[in-house]
Design brief:
alpha+beta, two-stranded antiparallel sheet, 18 helices, 7 strands, 11% strand, globular
Length: 342
């Protein structure tokens, strides 16, 4: 495999959500709603190499849950993942001669497709696991995380079934968060023992299957697919929208001012504003969206005080943060935190 290159942590490959979009469309949710969420046409979102800022994944899953009325829409949409997502990584996973090599390829190229989660293989004694950890400027969110896990489970099981092996490669899964009251959707979608309250997503694998030959070796096809993935990764062009989203994520505690962003790129504010608007966004909207979801992450995942969270979000005072939070969610940040399950 080629040496790994650094991947932007604040953008993801938009077509990875196409199976989820198909699920919503099949439920009668209008395509115009999806296009309004991304501020791009469905045709654009189906275009190869399209990457979009990470906060758009959170916007999409908010829309998906609200429009579908399904609390487990990520699990349900994930069932379409392996059957409808046809990208080079899916093909490469299928043609790899062993589960070990398939997972190694997955860990190598997964960051290109997912902006917030990274994958790694961990071996401790006789145990083996594929572990997903958060690395993005925003957390992936429960629905997105569950969608990804169901997709990975489908890839793993499909690979063994295609080889005629009637054994589940998964021994169990550890998931973050509190165990939900209704587990039926999880049992139906994941079909393995689950443990809750983990710091990371851990898919525990059957070690005796890991190096077992599964597919006839086809080094020529493997090499072609690796080359295509490397080419896609190297040729993906960063837009000013990507740069603005990265800048906001990085400079949020310092306020992430538009003037500073433009100065750093030697652009006039008028030119930068026009170019961002061509992608469907104003800089102030990017700043607001990043703050909106980052606020939830900090309230849910940290012990920071409200004053400290105010500073992390780049607000001058707690009152400004509270006003913004009320506009986003109709309540105060303190009340939101108090309402979280414990």
């Amino acid at each position: 495999m080629s040496p790994r290159t650094a991947d932007p942590s604040n953008a993801f490959y938009a077509p990875t959500l196409l199976p989820a979009m198909e699920e919503l469309l099949s439920r009668g949710i209008a395509g115009a709603e999806l296009e309004a969420c991304f501020r791009r046409s469905l045709l654009e979102l189906r275009t190869p190499l399209v990457r979009v800022p990470l906060f758009l994944s959170r916007r999409f899953w908010d829309l998906a849950e609200q429009a579908s009325g399904e609390a487990a829409i990520g699990l349900l949409a994930g069932k379409r993942f392996a059957s409808t997502l046809t990208n080079g990584l899916t093909y490469l996973f299928d043609v790899a001669p062993t589960l070990e090599l398939a997972c190694a390829y997955f860990c190598e190229y997964f960051p290109y497709f997912n902006g917030s989660l990274r994958a790694e293989l961990r071996a401790e004694g006789d145990s083996l696991a594929l572990v997903l950890t958060e690395h993005g400027a925003l957390l992936s969110g429960r629905q997105s995380r569950e969608y990804t896990v169901v997709g990975i489970c489908s890839l793993l099981r499909r690979k063994l079934l295609a080889s005629g092996i009637d054994q589940d490669p998964l021994l169990g899964i550890d998931l973050p968060g509190i165990e939900p009251g209704e587990l039926q959707a999880y049992d139906q979608a994941l079909r393995v023992p689950l443990r809750w309250g983990a710091a990371e997503v851990v898919l525990r694998l059957a070690p005796e299957l890991f190096r077992r030959p599964l597919s006839p070796p086809n080094p020529e096809l493997e090499g072609t697919l690796v080359g295509l993935l490397d080419q896609a990764r190297s040729q993906t062009q960063r837009t000013l929208l990507d740069e603005a989203a990265d800048y906001v994520a990085r400079e949020l505690p310092q306020g992430a001012s538009f003037q500073s962003f433009c100065e750093a790129r030697h652009l006039t504010e008028r030119t930068a504003a026009r170019r961002l608007l061509s992608h469907g966004w104003r800089y102030s909207e990017l700043l607001d969206e990043q703050r909106r979801y980052r606020a939830l992450d900090l309230l849910e995942q940290s012990a920071l005080s409200l004053a400290q969270i105010t500073d992390q979000l780049g607000y001058g005072d707690l009152q400004s943060f509270s006003r913004a939070f009320g506009r986003w969610y109709g309540t105060s940040p303190g009340a939101w935190r108090e309402s979280l399950p414990r």
